[in-house]
Amino acid sequence: MAEAVIEVEVVYAAVDRQVLLSVQVTPGSSVRAVLLQSGIGKAFPELDLAVCPVGVFGKVIADPDSRAVQAGDRIEVYRPLLADPKEVRRLRAAKAAEARNQ
């Protein structure tokens, strides 16, 4: 008898391209195991799948090794931010305040 499988998606968007992979896995597989099985690390060798932040449908997963996937899940691999949004807003506000004072 064939083993049951579920289908999930793995997505990653680099600066220059994005990839969406459909992966068939056994029920109960962890998020991290699905990432490794998907082959996304081969398409993007710069990714360190052991430590990169990941989420499911936009919600960050704190422990991808223990979170089991469900049918239809969309696993997202996140890039590190290039700039801290708070710092960017602070600099923009300071620049605007300086322009008003001149």
Automatic annotation (TrEMBL):
<dbReference type="InterPro" id="IPR016155">
    <property type="entry name" value="Mopterin_synth/thiamin_S_b"/>
</dbReference>
<protein>
    <recommendedName>
        <fullName>UPF0125 protein LAB08_R06840</fullName>
    </recommendedName>
</protein>
<dbReference type="Pfam" id="PF03658">
    <property type="entry name" value="Ub-RnfH"/>
</dbReference>
<dbReference type="InterPro" id="IPR005346">
    <property type="entry name" value="RnfH"/>
</dbReference>
<comment type="similarity">
    <text>Belongs to the UPF0125 (RnfH) family.</text>
</comment>
<dbReference type="InterPro" id="IPR037021">
    <property type="entry name" value="RnfH_sf"/>
</dbReference>
